[in-house]
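As a representative case, the lines below give one protein's residues and fold tokens.
***
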Amino acid sequence: MTLLLSGGLMLGLGSGVALLLGWADRAFRVRVDMRIRKVLELLPGANCGGCGYTGCGEYAEAVAKGESPADQCPVGGPRTADAVARCLGLASEAAFPRKAILHCNTRNETRQRQASYAGAPHCLTAHLVAGVQDCVYGCLGFGDCAKACPFDALILENGVAHINYAHCTGCGACAEVCPRSLLEIIPFKGDSMPVVSCANPDKGPDVRGVCSHGCIGCRACPRKLDCFKMNDSLARIDYSLFNPATDEQGLAAAELCCPMNGIRRAGKPGRNDE
């Protein structure tokens, strides 16, 4: 009788525990959206943060939930965007690869650092020191961007940053560390893209005094092509309006009329890729 009671008690306890575990499994189960896993498998896994999220996993979750578009991965580019869109049954729109451009075409007169500067060889540190160079908006050339780039797409030549577009993925790491906001990530709608190679918002005479290629705010380029816009005394390009298929003639006219030769092509061919 004792054995029977003991066996029954153990059987009852075991059944109760099994029922409790089954209920807990259903109540506390973390349901994994298989779409997130599928999107994550399509991403390159660089975890560069160029999409605006901390990593590929977080971005995959946002895309699967409809909180982010499918074309925000700069490393994967259009091919990955198309694959992700097809995976989720979304309309795949034309996506352009995103790459960095540099708003500075500095020459010797603007990159001559004063010999008195003895601080740490970092752009962020030098930016805080007055008189490091004549143009306070130009490339400092200490290479913070090159050090931050995980793809070795930036190099320093004669104290100025240059972009190797064969390696650039548009992750945005360089733009984040530039203390003068000279680097911008734009959609490359062709092999090369136009760039206003200046970030100096000062008036024309002041710009001429520190650089031979800076924008003097003459407003000639907007008269040749609508994508050129004036930000006070500084010309900028609205890349959402630029169409390389129809704007080439206007762009060539804008380049020719620039008295400072400050509009250049980035990419291939382009001075930054030489």
Q: What stands out?
A: Residues 2-28 form the longest helix (27 residues). Residues 39 and 60 are 6 Å apart (CA to CA). Strands lie at 98-102, 154-157, 160-163, 183-187, 192-196, 228-231, 234-237, 263-267.
